[in-house]
Amino acid sequence: MSWAFYGDGGIDYICFKENAMEQLNDKWLRLLGIPLSVAMLLLAEMPFFFPGRWDLLWKYMLISIICTGLIWEASRYILIRIRRLYPGLEHTTARVAWMLTGFAMVAGMGQFVMQVLIHEFDIAPAPVLTFRVWLINFSISMFFIVLIGGIYEAIYFFGHYKLALQRTELLKKEQARQHLEALKNRVNPHFLFNCLTTLSALIGEDARRAERFVDELSKVYRYLLRANRQLQVPLADELAFSESYTYLLITRLGAAFDVHTKVDAQYLEQKLPPLILQNLLDYLIRTQTISPEKPLLVDISANENALVLTAPYQPKTVWVDSGNLDWAAIASAYEQQSGRQAVQAVVDNRLHFRLPFMQEIEAAA
Hints:
By secondary structure, the chain is α+β, with helices and mostly antiparallel strands. It folds into 2 domains: about 5-175, no CATH class; about 185-355, Heat Shock Protein 90. It contains 10 helices and 7 strands. The chain has helices at about 10-20, 25-50, 55-85, 90-120, 130-185, 190-205, 205-225, 235-255, 275-285, 325-340, and strands at about 235, 255-260, 270, 295-300, 305-310, 345, 350-355. The strands form 2 sheets. The chain has a 5-stranded mixed beta sheet, with helices on one face. A two-stranded antiparallel ribbon has the order 1-3. α3 (about 55-85) runs antiparallel to α4 and α9 packs antiparallel against α10 (about 325-340). The chain is rod-shaped, with a radius of gyration of 36 Å.
């Protein structure tokens, strides 16, 4: 198994916990449980098998502790071996069935050996080498073995169940992280080609604008390189990036596109997945009509809970990539990455996007 991500809180940690669960860690249960259970059982049996014979109690107790200890250790060995043969949740039925079979064999043989020893040392006031006595002691022994074995299995089962849930959640987060990386990398050669084409035209028309265009393009790619190493960024960084990115788009698209940002300073340290604004702006450009007659004017604002982006709802009739699928990918990655649900809605013929802020987390090692 070669899982490895999210550091101490990831799959490596879960594998460590799985290995740790194979160790029973029952030292004190064995040291105290065996003599206490034997003492309680003999005191309960005393009125029926040797009433009033306190002189025999310590002999019974000595032999019983030795035999019970051997039965316990044998049952424990069987439990460990069967766990290794049938590990995990998917083999629970087979594991329990084989454990019960092994426990029954150990209990049966253990009780027979105990009866032989009691008979040979002649410490029983009545015959003990009978099927009735063996059946009674076997039933009592099986009750305690199954009870203790059931506790072991319950701890093992629910421990693995909890780890399975953690693994599933971590895999979802890793899938979302990879999905987000793919979304980040959507600043593709087409974007660079469009920028170079625009720059080529500007050089001959307006050298000063061309110089600023190059500066803003370098800011965009500098942010892209940094953002690929982060899981979350301050809103202030995203807005600074979107300003440079928007300048490139406005230079290419002209007055038919613009972005108005109005965010109070108190929200600038709130966290978002990196490049989420770039993804949304690209989504709008691919799916909405942009023309001098129908300009795409985007408004960005924020409140204490979320970033809000609105734009006119003027969908294209045909586009190369499916806008619905693109939004589904953005929303899915955002929700799995942040644990919050991104919302898209059309209200009064305007598109509304609501992106809840993320809780601050430590960057993965």
